[in-house]
Every structure is written in structure tokens, then in C-alpha cells.
Design goal:
The structure holds 2 protein chains of 2 kinds. By secondary structure, chain A is of the alpha/beta class. Chain A contains 9 helices and 12 strands. Chain A is 42% helix and 18% strand. The chains are: A alpha/beta, B mainly alpha.
Amino acid sequence: MITAGLGLKPQHYDEALTCDAEGLWFEVHPENYMSAGGPRLAALEAIRERRPLSLHGVGLSLAADADPDREHLAALKRLVDRFEPFVVSEHLAWSTHRGQHQPDLLPFPRTHAALARIAANVGRMQDALGRKVLIENPSLYLPLTGHDLDEVDFLKALVAQTGCGLLVDVNNVFVSASNLGYRAETYLDALPAEAIGEIHLAGHAPDEGGSDLLIDTHGAPVAEPVWTLYRRLIDRIGPRPTLIERDDDIPDFATLMAERDRAAAMLEPVLEKAHA
Amino acid sequence: MPELLDFQDAFVAALGGERSALSPWLAPDAGEAGLSVYRNTIAKGCVDALAANFPTVLSMVGEDWFRAAAALFAREAPPTGATLLDYGKDFPAWLERFPPAQDLPYLVGVAHLDRLWTEALFAAEAAALTAGALAALPPEALAETRLALHPSVRFAAFDAGLPSLWSSARAGHDGLELSDQAEALLCVRAHGAVRHRVIGEAETEFLRACREGQTTAQAAERVLTAHPAADLAPLFAGLIADGVFLDIDR
């Protein structure tokens, strides 16, 4: 049974290898393992022998007006073949532009034309990997105009056109709803339950620049309102593999496992209900 | 479908400070803060990657200096791919041209050595030649063998003691002094982790000969011609122990 997992960090390799928590799984950014060789790949291989693994891409740039980079896709395919992840996911965002890479998940106007382009890119990704992928909702910071679809309708259309699934990042929903002024509950309630294959939980922080924006830092514990939204989501859709993400100001493994155990404990009654 | 590309062009221009380019897509309530968040996240991603790849440079110049310089480099030479493991190939050369680095004479060399170490870390896996496998070869076959270097081998020679200085800084020592002894640094990852050690001119010459495809006998002769006092047996045994040679096809 795959329940709650943790984003795997190099400083925690040893503990990840020996931890005996039931249902624990790990997730990594494949971009951090796209090397010809090295100790990271060896460590990931050892952990993968004991635990399910998810590959969560941050760099394929599916929302760029360009085909996904062939070399990147080939490198991803090699990792998928080698590590046999139970989930492969990417973001509804872009990062490449005319040969340069901006290491961030950038927004775009959700037009019908953008939908056609992104659906084609998701299709290319799925064809190259020979499997279904999950697409994650982004954190948004800038109110744009020119959208033809709201984000939930855009994601639904993407699912319908490509057969992809969704990775719902509850913290991103909370952050975007706060930044752009909509209700997180309304957004979550409208997501198609059957398409959701994974859930992310992470921490955020107020903008150090002094604005009212919340920043998806992955640098703090999951906030209480995000746990409340998570409860609401799994009560509605049922249990899903749930990940605690932490990429900055990383505490010790035990601290992260305590958060992970909280998610596992919340999943437990939902799992029982689903199997009743 | 030019509209999405038009948007991307405008967004990147706005990230660079030309906010008006994005105005057709900006909602009336869009403040400056949102763009700043993206700008800061991008800069942080690049700077963090450079900090991970140039830890000795960072330790020598301090966090503030490093982050300011790295942010400038990232604006001039943004990553070209999503894998930042490898980012900063041109950072040493950029530091050489960076005016504030002119007062820090070792910095460019230190950056170069950090880069060698990172390249060794992520190089391809391969089996290294062991002393046992070598001992199984008849002596005349060894003399005629062309030993290939392990894919993780990186070395660089300097006409002063920069490799010793780098090694000390990497180990966390301060009070660094640069000797005028010519030295080279060898990085290799044949047995799991990257190992590095300061090597002399004779060993460097031997590695160069192997890299150029010469036989063991030719390499030995080349070393002894340039360095008649060199003691070849321990030199060769040391390199074998480091795992610098690729296993031989038998």
C-alpha cells in the first residue's frame, strides 16, 4: 500500500534507506539525476530497491510554445526505464524560452490556443515515455488577462484531450487563491476526482519583499489551513498517494517524517472507508 | 501559434525590466511584486546551483560576494538546460573577466578546480583497472598496453601551488598561502565518491601520455625523459590505487 511519501533529499539518503515506515515512498526531481553517473544515482537505486518512487519533473516546460526538448525527454525516459516509478509528473508551466532555461515555473494566459499547444506537448511526453503522466497545478503570483478558461476547466480539458491525470498541489491552490483572490475550496471542489493521481503538500511564506503575496517556498512546514484543505479534498475524492515536499531550509529526516506521518494518519480512515 | 510565444517573449522582457512589454496581458491590479517573485525565484535557482558547484569559491569570498557575483553571471549566461547539476561551466572564465575578482588572484584557478571536481562527480560509471588485473598481464603485454583513463578522471596542472591551496580551502582550513611549487590536481571517482589529491609533474606527464593514447612503455619513457629522477613503480601503483585507468578488455 502506497500512502504518504517524502521528497527525497541527498542529506537523508541513509535514513531513507533504513526507515521502516509502512506505506512510505519517495519522490525526486529527475533533473537532479540526469547525469551520466555518480553517487546520487547509486543512492537512488539502493532506495528504489526498497521503496516505490515517483519522478516529478520541473524542467520539461510543457507550457512553452515549443516542442519538449528531445534530449531532456530522452534523459527522462532513461530514468523512467531504470527506476520504474509508480508515477511520473510535470507542471502546467513553462521554463524554456528560445534556448534559455529559467529555473522557475512560469505562468501563461490560458487560451484555447495555449490549450492546443500544451495538450500536444503532454501527448508528446506521454508518447515518449509510453505511459500516462500527471500534471500539477502551478502557484501563481501575477494576475494576467486574456484567459479563455479558468484553471480547473483548463486542467479538465487537458485530461479529456490527452488522457493525462492530475497532481493536485494543495499548497499551490492555497497560495494562488490567496494571491489572485479566489476561494481555494471552490477550486478544489471543482477538480475531477477520478483524474487525480497524487497530492502534494508543502509550506509557504509571506513575501520578504513586503507585498501581500504568499510564496510557495517549500521552505516551511505545511500550514494549518493547507492541512484543512487536504482533509476536505481526501474526504471528497478518497485516498491518494500524498507527498510532503521540502526543498529549502531542510530539517532533519525525523522532522519531515513527523509531517509525513500526519498525512498518513489522515489517509488511514479514508482508506478504510474506500475499502469498506 | 504565435500568441503563446509572443507572451513568452514579453514575459522574459518583463523579467529583464521591460515591464511595458507585458502590459497587454497584465490585469489592472497587477503590481510589481508578482514579477519580482518570479525574478527572485529564477535568480535563486541559478545562484543556489552555482553555490553547490563552486563551494570552495564560496568559502573563500563569503556568501554576500558570491551570491552577488553569481547573480550577475546568471543574468549574462542563463542556464541552457533544465539540469542545473552541470551549470557554471563558463563561471571560471567569467570570473577572470569580472573586475572585483581581480584583487583575488587565486579565485579563477580555485573555480576551475571546483569545476573539475563537479565534472568528476557526475561522469559516467566504469570499472577501474585493479592492481590484481594488471598483475595478471605478462610484462611485455603491459609495456605495449594503451591504458585508457577512467571517464571520471580530471586533472589540471598549475605553475604554482594552487592545488594545495584549493585542497586546504576545500577541507575548511583558513590562512591559505600559495607556494611557488608547480603542482597538479587529480580528481577521480572510480570507487563511489570523488577522490582528489595533489600530484607532481611526473604523474601529470604520465596521465597526459595515457590520455593521448600512448603505450605504457612510451608513457614511462616520456616521464623519465622529462623527469629523470622520477620513481615510476610507486607512481604507477598510486595511480592504479586511485582507479584512474579503465579496466582492460581481455
